Amino acid sequence: MPFTAITYDIKGGCEDEVAEVFDNFRRPSGNVVPGTDGAQAGRILATAVFIRDSTLVRFIEYEGDLDAVIRFMAAQPGVSEVERKLAPYLNNPRDTGTVDGFLRTFRASQLRCITQFAVPRQPGASASAADQ
């Protein structure tokens, strides 16, 4: 399964406040990503958020069409809420108020993937809370 990661340029000294933003994150009701035709275009398998000093990184494990995944994320109330709550702690504003702005911002903050490795998962095995 592929991974992607995006960065946020956070004001120094705000790590605890930023961590609090993610404490009450409202997850989507499901992980199935619909395409423009309504058929399944992918799934979000896991996410993780890390912070150190002025850098916050969000990792996403997904399958399917990444643009569909990004558009799905842009429409999620929890993601919109996090983006809004992070705004005061950002060194550079992020244009995430629209789906197209979210897509542009996501692509502009995306890290280049150098390599990925994963072990096969057992079919039907559920992800742990730490993986989500």
SSE diagram, text form:
Layout (H helix, E strand, L loop, with lengths): L2 E7 L5 H9 L8 E3 L5 E13 L2 E10 L1 H9 L2 H10 L12 H11 L23
Antiparallel strand pairs: 1-4, 2-3, 3-4
* Helix fraction by DSSP (H/I, runs of at least 4): 25-40%
Specify Rg, calculated over alpha carbons.
Answer: 15 Å
Q: What is the 3D form?
A: globular
Let me know the largest β-sheet.
Answer: 4 strands, antiparallel
What does this protein look like?
It is built from 4 helices and 4 strands. The protein is of the alpha+beta class and 132 residues long. A hairpin with a 2-residue loop joins strand 3 (40-52) and strand 4 (55-64). Residues 128-132 have low confidence and may be disordered.
Summarize the structure.
This protein is α+β, with helices and mostly antiparallel strands. α2 crosses α4.
List descriptors:
4 helices; 4 strands; 25% strand; disordered C terminus; globular; 132 residues
